[in-house]
């Protein structure tokens, strides 16, 4: 497993202008001159209503994983290109990401570093893990995409849409809202609230993400040491696990109340700055017969990723 800062991070020049000098002055003025409304506006928040947002007050197996990935890529339609899709996502979201990157940092939150960001499972990843653990992703290739939405009148609320899109089979769509100052997240699906989460901090670092999703208890609890996170306690509904760091990477064993077990391995992990305010994290992990490659885009002022693109391969049982 590699944990390193990667200069440039394999991005074309167009992406480096995401938070550019000529944009910064106008965006910064918008942030500083506009006071947050005391009420949420349904029009600004899309599928979220005012009452909705009020709630916001193990051993590696790299060879077989690579073979599975190559085989899945050969079977995908030629039109599918995960790298191009991710870059398109970032280009489309340039203005939104630039705005959120310039939000003021609140005193209790330390500026996120690339190393810190890759130490723990993010909330969107937890939703994907839950779907995989419950066999909600069909055999074959699927996309998992978090796309930021334009900011509304309430300046402290980050809004995004999350999609799980298999080439064939049922698609899933979530609406996500994250209150930066209150550190609370709200999730809706099919216009109904299905999840609420609290982000807890200790000494300026993320201590825990906890809440409920579809009536089930969720807890993401990283344990910090001087050199980072040694392990995470993960509770995703009826599944429990500890993601443990060791010399060869990270691994976990998810246990279901019924006795079912599913092994998870983090095969690669790296992160690098895009500019002074934003950075990117790349992860590859394997969960049972699923192989997942993720790219997450963060603002250093916000605890939740602003954009995410994942390629998911289900090789079948």
Condensed summary:
The protein is of the alpha+beta class and 317 residues long.
Give your account of this protein's structure:
It is a single chain. This protein has 317 residues and is an alpha+beta fold. The chain is built from eight helices and 14 strands. Strands 1-2-3-4-5-6-7-8-9-10-11-12-13-14 form a 14-stranded antiparallel β-barrel, surrounded by four helices. The longest helix is centred in the N-terminal third of the chain and has 14 residues, at 62-75.
Task: Supply database-style keywords.
single chain, 317 residues, alpha+beta, 8 helices, 22% helix, 41% strand, globular, disordered N terminus
Q: Find the count of extended strands (DSSP E, 2+ residues).
A: 14
**Residues in β-strands, percent:** 35-45%
| Major sheet characteristics | 14 strands, antiparallel, barrel
Low-confidence stretches: 1-9, 13-46, 52-60
Biggest sheet, spatial arrangement of strands: 1-2-3-4-5-6-7-8-9-10-11-12-13-14
Shape verdict: globular
Helix-strand sequence: HHHHHHHHEEEEEEEEEEEEEE
List the topology elements.
Blueprint: H1 13-16, H2 21-33, H3 50-54, H4 62-75, H5 82-92, H6 94-101, H7 114-117, H8 123-133, E1 140-148, E2 157-166, E3 172-179, E4 184-189, E5 192-202, E6 205-213, E7 216-225, E8 228-236, E9 239-246, E10 249-256, E11 261-273, E12 278-287, E13 290-299, E14 307-314
Antiparallel strand pairs: 1-2, 1-14, 2-3, 3-4, 4-5, 5-6, 6-7, 7-8, 8-9, 9-10, 10-11, 11-12, 12-13, 13-14
